[in-house]
Design brief:
The protein has a domain of 116 residues: Glycoprotein, Type 4 Pilin (2-Layer Sandwich), CATH 3.30.700. The protein contains four helices and five strands. With 218 residues, the chain is mainly alpha-helical.
Length: 218
């Protein structure tokens, strides 16, 4: 029987080391090409551009300017709409107050056979609601309709109108009626003819087409 020839001892060691090396290479190769790239955060995949992640997620100047412009447009639209709502509300309030003053004058006429008389201000020639003549006419109207010189004083004659505090300018005596814009209501009457009552609707330049009046506007 032929005895097999055994390899020298050092060749056996070399053979085992070589096999182990191949095994390690195969395991590393498997992990490298089978595990997704996000498992190795320090390794940039070939498909990703070689630039920092922070640079990829930042906004450009053009994008920021576009966002700021859109926000400005939306803010302008919102403020414009809010201003229109306030103007509409003030106009509605002034119309209601002019009608209330006219009705109070009619009740005054029913009892006294005359209207509160004052012709200090004429709507055809006087356009400044902060003028003294507006205040004088308003004070005459106030004392006749409220029955006292101030809103808080007890009336000495019949009261024909219960105004809201916001409708009365209380600094100074007598008080007088003011519109939602803070100006005195215009009033003109000779005591016989129906009075003219108006608000200049916040205008101070004679823009009569914007006035709120007790008479029909042409």
């Amino acid at each position: 029987m032929t005895t097999p020839t055994l390899a020298p001892f050092h060749q056996k060691i070399f053979t085992h080391a070589k096999s182990a090396k191949r095994g390690r290479f195969s395991a590393l190769s498997f992990l490298k090409f089978r595990i997704p790239h996000f498992a190795f955060p320090n390794q940039i995949p070939p498909s990703r551009p070689l630039r920092p992640l922070r640079e990829q997620s930042a906004f450009t100047l053009v994008e920021l300017l576009a966002v700021i412009t859109i926000i400005g447009i939306l803010a302008g639209l919102t403020l414009g709409a809010a201003g229109a709502v306030r103007r509409h509300g003030a106009t509605s309030t002034a119309k209601a107050e002019v009608a209330a003053l006219q009705a109070a004058c009619d009740r005054f006429y029913a009892d006294n056979n005359s209207y509160p008389s004052n012709s200090a201000v004429n709507p055809s020639s006087s356009f400044t609601p902060s003028a003294t003549m507006y205040t004088t006419a308003g004070q005459a109207l106030f004392t006749n309709l409220v029955g006292s010189a101030t809103l808080t004083a007890a009336p000495t004659t019949k009261r024909y109108l219960e105004p809201k505090p916001a409708m009365v300018y209380t600094t100074g005596t007598p008080n007088y009626f003011v519109d939602p814009w803070g100006y005195a209501y215009g009033y003109n009457s000779d005591g016989i003819n129906a009075p003219l009552i108006w608000s200049t609707a916040g205008t101070t330049k004679g823009e009569t087409n914007k006035w709120i009046t007790s008479w029909p506007k042409m």
